[in-house]
């Protein structure tokens, strides 16, 4: 899998996502680059827009609008305080404290705009390279790990890499509460070791 990722120009891959950002639909820039959840195992991308805002996206926007501070900045600050940051610079890469999945990673540009479609080419290139690096570390940590990469675009844009290493079982389905068997402190140490 890493060979495929390295063979594709990360800027070209991410630039193609801008197609979704130009759609005039309420939910417009959700991207999955997956090897997880496909009916036939192969890497592929899905860029789409929806004529409605999904409930989870609407809830995230409402939470941000109701919050006194930027929730993404709070998440990054919390990760820094807990030493859960993998990389910190133009792009912050971290394992969030309340991860819903083992080895989950988030990435955010130091100066992100509100939406993906407003990002500059320089910001997109930096995010693409950081995403490639995070996927390479994941690939070294767990060979052939299935994963989803999602670009969240509102109320601020960031990227989330969700490895599909655990089964969503009855408890998770019944309650909506996800059990993560790898604490973020262990996940970040594991991914740091594989990044070296």
Characterization of the model:
There is one protein chain. With about 200 residues, the chain is of the alpha+beta class. The protein has a single domain (about 1-195), classed as HIT-like (HIT family, subunit A, 2-Layer Sandwich), CATH 3.30.428. About 40% of the residues lie in helices and about 20% in strands. The protein contains 8 helices and 7 strands; from the N terminus they run αααββααβββαββαα. It has helices spanning about 1-5, 10-15, 20, 55-65, 70-80, 120-140, 170-175, 185-195; strands at about 25-35, 45-50, 85, 90-95, 105-110, 145-150, 160-165. A 7-stranded antiparallel β-sheet has the order 2-1-6-7-5-4-3, with helices on both faces. α2 packs across α6. The longest helix has 21 residues, at about 120-140. The chain is globular and about 35 Å long. The two termini are about 20 Å apart.
Keywords:
single chain; 196 residues; alpha+beta; HIT family, subunit A
């Amino acid at each position: 899998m890493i060979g495929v990722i390295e063979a594709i120009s990360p800027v070209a891959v991410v630039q193609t996502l801008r197609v979704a950002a130009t759609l005039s639909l309420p939910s417009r820039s959700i991207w999955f680059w997956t090897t997880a959840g496909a009916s036939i195992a192969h890497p592929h991308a899905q860029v789409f827009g929806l004529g409605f805002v999904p409930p989870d996206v609407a809830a995230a926007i409402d939470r941000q609008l109701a919050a006194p501070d930027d929730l993404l900045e709070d998440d990054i600050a919390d990760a820094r305080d807990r030493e859960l940051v993998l990389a910190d610079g133009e792009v912050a890469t971290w394992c969030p404290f309340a991860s819903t999945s083992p080895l989950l990673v988030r990435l955010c540009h130091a100066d992100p705009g509100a939406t993906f479609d407003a990002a500059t080419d320089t910001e997109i290139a930096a995010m693409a390279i950081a995403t490639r690096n995070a996927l390479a570390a994941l690939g070294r940590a767990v060979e052939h790990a299935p994963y989803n990469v999602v670009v969240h675009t509102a109320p601020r844009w960031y990227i989330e890499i969700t490895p599909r290493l655990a089964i969503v079982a009855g408890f998770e389905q019944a309650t909506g509460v996800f059990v993560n068997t790898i604490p973020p402190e262990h996940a970040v140490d594991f991914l740091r070791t594989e990044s070296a």
